[in-house]
Amino acid sequence: RSHAREILHCLKEKYFKELQDLEVDGQKVEMPQSLSWYPEELAWHTNLSRKILRKSPQLEKFHQFLVSETECGNISRQEAVSMIPPLLLNINPHHKILDMCAAPGSKTAQLIEMLHADMNVPFPKGFVIANDVDNKRCYLLVHQAKRLNSPCIMVVNHDASSIPNLQIDVDGRKEVLFYDRILCDVPCSGDGTMRKNIDVWKKWTTQNSLQLHGLQLRIATRGVEQLAEGGRMVYSTCSLNPIENEAVIASLLEKSQGALELADVSSELPGLKRMPGITKWKVMLKDGQWFEEWKDVPSNRQTQIRPTMFPVKDEEKLKAMNLERCLRILPHHQNTGGFFVAVLIKKSPMPWNKRQPKVHQKLPQGTGDTEVTAVNSNNGSECVTEEATLAENEESKKMQELQNSDTEQSKKEGVCGPPPSKKMKLFGFKEDPFVFLPEDDPLFLPIQKFYALDPSFPKMNLLTRTQEGKKRQLYMVSKELRNVLLNNSEKMKVINTGIKVWSRNSDGEQFGCAFRLAQEGIYTLYPFIHARIISVCIEDVKILLTQENPFLSKFSSETQKKVKDMAMGSIVLKYDPDPQKPDDLQCPIVLCGWQGKTSLRAFVPKNERLHYLRMMGVEVFKAKRKEEESESKTEEAVQHRLTQTEEGMDVEDKDHDLVTKMEAEIAEESSHSPVESSAMEVENKSEDLGLSRKNDNSHVSQESKDADTSNVKD
User: What are the distances in angstroms from CA 204 to CA 112, 197, 332, 599?
Assistant: First the structure.
């Protein structure tokens, strides 16, 4: 948050002022405006197109700022109305959150940001499970989430309409996981995006909504089943068609029999222009036929049009639903896309779930049968979802009996492998297992000693992505996500979780510790580290970020004194702002570094380095141009130097031709860039190098492999 305030100050005082009175092609450039309804001026709207952004040198600088800061995760660029659903969830740091249809991940980024509202708490008690049905889009989601470096996010790959019930361990007994907040941003026809999406005009038909309605209702139903009592679910679409919106909500409310209610959010987000939800609409076929009621639909059309698509006729029922509490955002009201949002609160279990689901391992066989029978007789057609859930649980029960010994053994070892069930085999890449470090792992002791880790450090939360051979990277998750991972490995396809906190050095043992710190996880790790910390002044930070391997003599005398008695190896460089100097940078900075015999250097991804320099008022635009010129002259020397550096950055999996080729290109490009090899940096570089993402393998290589190129898939 402190960095966000610094960026806002930088935008207002520098970049926006440069846009004043600027003309491009004879047209005056409109100043960006803050969105009045978004808290703390943290969202801004601009009408500038990419084409215009690239035409003028002043705008090119602004454009470069936007791209670079987006890559760092410090800003996100997204449609304004898409920012509304996370705000209406009212998230607190202890909430367990499910994002059902999360890709490409802009809303997920907002959810993570809200979890970490207090930056002094490295591990909030809450977490975000971000799901998407499309395996390839899951990797895009991983990239978006990775920018925020949170140990509290897990990306999974499931069909949202049948996402499995997860279990967690509560005081030694298994319980079903219910979520405090659920974001249900369902697939839709997208007709609200007609201002920016020309395709909508060509491809739109009434059929789109008729085909999607059933899926939207199934996803929303699955969502409310997994919501905790008193929890809040936001349903949203970028469509204005009532069949995708009010019809889904009305059907959900009707079958909930009072278990759900629409929340009145009229007082939330003041300044947002909105329209109430509608209560009357008609249904139209592709050929132009209108129907006002289900009974009017001819039998040969009853597969295309379903009863749930029509408005409720009973006036009392309709009034009790309060459909006017839904939000409709119209494009012409505040120059945005069209959008629909409904906020649902769960007051009691769903009628077909009256007894909250129990863990089926503990249920005697007879109880399971009677429960199925009771559900069938009481609820008729409405029990389809629950039947499916029970069937799924029965199936998983049988599967568990078959594999019980294996599963128990792997849990003892802290291994969360890919799901063994054939039913779960989705198309996509085979993920490496998640292996938690055993409590007595000899690997951890030298790390603990070298960095003088606090006794409260949660070493049980450390994991690797390899079961055999040398552990190359150590990742960290929160205690709550560890609980989820260990208890659900057989029913959940996890694409990614955890942030990298340590990387192995090929010759690190001679420096007292085989693992160096990773910038990606330093803000999470820093509160637990009590050794190898050097406090630096702002001038030292500038030297560290602008020079590749500066000699110790270039630093302030205080820094030189601190370094003098310290052994070579990985270090933490900490800058604390001085309130007495308001013109200096006013947010704390923690950098990973390396102390050599005669030099001191920072390992920071390129865009993050540029971010800190901007915040300190250093002009990076021209510096980048100079960098590019020098890069072409010194690329061979740089490549050689990067492979020979004293910190011994590792290169593994040489047989991954594409990844190895990328390393070389990254090395060439980072001539004056002491760079921490991170998944994020590979993303940045791959974008600049214009490498194709069409090929699946290159998609994984770019978005999921570090420049260290271990066999770890992000």
Answer: 34, 11, 20, 62
Write down the catalytic residue from 188, 238, 587, 592: 238
CA-to-CA separations, 395 to 252, 400, 424, 512, in angstroms, rounded: 27, 9, 12, 51
* One domain, residues 346 and 213: yes
Domain-embedded: residue 583 = yes
Q: How far apart are CA 310 and CA 248, in angstroms?
A: 10
Q: Is 383 annotated as a binding residue?
A: no
Neighbouring C-beta atoms of residue 550, cutoff 10 Å: 18
User: Which two tokens mark 370?
Assistant: 């009677």
Can you give the residue range of the structural domain that contains 52?
1-72
Q: Which residue from 691, 645, 647, 641 is spatially nearest to 665, judged by alpha carbons?
A: 691
Based on the residue annotation, tell me whether 238 is a catalytic residue of this protein.
yes
DSSP H stretches of helix in 435-478? 444-450
Q: What is the pLDDT of residues 153-194, one digit of tens each?
A: 999 999 999 999 999 999 999 999 999 999 999 999 999 999
Give how many domains the chain has, as a whole number: 3
185 is in an annotated binding site: yes
Q: Is residue 523 part of a domain?
A: no
Q: Order of strands, edge to edge, in the sheet holding 473-476? A: 415-416, 434-436, 462-464, 473-476, 499-504, 515-517
Residue 561's nearest CA partner among 553, 570, 573, 569 is: 553
Spatial separation of the C-alpha atoms in residues 304 and 311, rounded to whole Å: 17
CB contact at 8 A, 578 and 625: no
In a domain, 648, yes or no: no
pTM: 0.79
